[in-house]
Amino acid sequence: MSDGIMEREASSMASVYWKRPLVITRGSGASLWDSDGNEYVDCTSNYGVAITGHCHPRVVEAIKAQSERLLSCHGTFYNEARSEFLERLTELTPSGLGRSFLSNSGTEAVEFALKVARRSTGKPGIIAMMGGFHGKTMGALSATWNKKYRAPFEPLVPGFKHVPFGNLERVEEAMDGDTAAVITEPIQGESGINLPPEGFLAGLRDICDDKDVLLIVDEIQTGLGRTGKMFAFEHVGIEPDVLCLAKAVASGLPMGVTMAGESVMSSLKMGDHSSTFGGGPVACAAACATIDVIRDEGLPERTHELGARLMDGLRALVERYRIVREARGMGLMVGVELRFDVLNVIMGALDRGVLVLDAGRNVVRLLPPLVIDGEQVDRVVSVLDEVLGEEEAARVRR
Length: 398
Ligand SMILES: Cc1ncc(COP(=O)(O)O)c(C=O)c1O
What we know:
This protein is an alpha/beta fold. The protein has 14 helices and 15 strands.
C-alpha cells in the first residue's frame, strides 16, 4: 500500500539517510502505524523528538489554535506565544541561564553556542570530547568527533581540540590562554550511550571555573526529562554556562534553543546572529504545550520508573546471550551493546513490530517517547529477546 511513496523519495531525495523500508503514516503515544496498517512500538521517538508521544492531544490543540491565528512572526517583532515559551523556559532552568536564542534545530543551537562563546570571551579555542556529537553544519561538525562525518568536508573551522570523554587531566592539559569553552554532552548519545565516569561533569565545572572557561552542555538528546530528570546536569548538581536544547522541545516541530546568562549573552551586538524562522509562533505554542505536558504528567519521574523496568529486562538479556556485551543508560535513554554490527537486530525487531535505533556500529539505541507504558516496555524486551536469540543461534551455526 505504499503507492510509489518509497520509490519517489528514494529517487528524488538526497541519499544521505539509511532508509528503513516503512512508510509511516500515523502516530499516537508510543505507537506508530505504517501504510499497511501495521502497528509498531516506537523506541526511536524519531531520534529523540517525540518525547510527549506522537500527536499528544494538548500539543496538537496548541498547534491548531496558534496556526489559526498567526503562522510566522520574525524575531524583530514581539509575540505572545514566544514570550510565554520564554517564560516557561526560564522557570524550568537555573536562574543563571536567563536569556535564550531560538532557532530551528540542534546543530543551529550549537552554532549559536560556539559563536556566543567566542564573542563573550574574545577567544577562539573550543575543547570538545572524543565520541561527541553536536551536529553536522560546519561549526557544530568541527565539535563533532566522528571522522566519518568530518573527513569529507575538511578543512573545518579552526580552533577545535578533542580530548577523551571522561578524562579531566586531558581537558586541563588541552586548555591554554586561547580557550573559550569546553563543550560536552552529559551522556554521549550518537556514539553509543556512553555515560561519563562519576565526577567527570562536576570536575569539568570546577576546571572551567578555575580557568575562566565557559562550559557548554549539549542536552539536545538528554534534555526535557529523557534521563529521569528535566536535564541530565541535574543528576550531578552542576549548572552550565551555556545550554543547548532541540529535538524534544516542541514535540516534533523544529525548535532549537541556546540559553546563557546575561554576562555571556550581552557580548552579542545587534545583528551578530539571527534566524528567519527561529522562535516562530507555532513552534513556540507547541513548545509551551510540551513543557506543560512534561510537568503535568510527571514525565521525568515516570521515565525513571519505566527506565528501571526496561533496564531490568535488558540486563536479563545480557545474562542470557553471549552476543550481548552490555546494557547501559539512564532513564529512557538506553543502549544495548552487541559484539557485532546491529543491522540484523534492527531489522529483526522491525519485522516484529518494534522500532529501534543504532548508535555507532554495535549499539542498539532505545529512545522511546516518555509516555510509553509498562506493557509496551515488556513487549520491547520480549521482541529483543526473540531477535537476539535467533541471531545468536544463527551465529553459532555459521
Ligand atoms: C547531542 C546532539 N547534539 C546535536 C545534535 C544535532 O541536532 P540536529 O540533528 O537537530 O541538527 C544531535 C542530533 O542527534 C545530538 O544528539
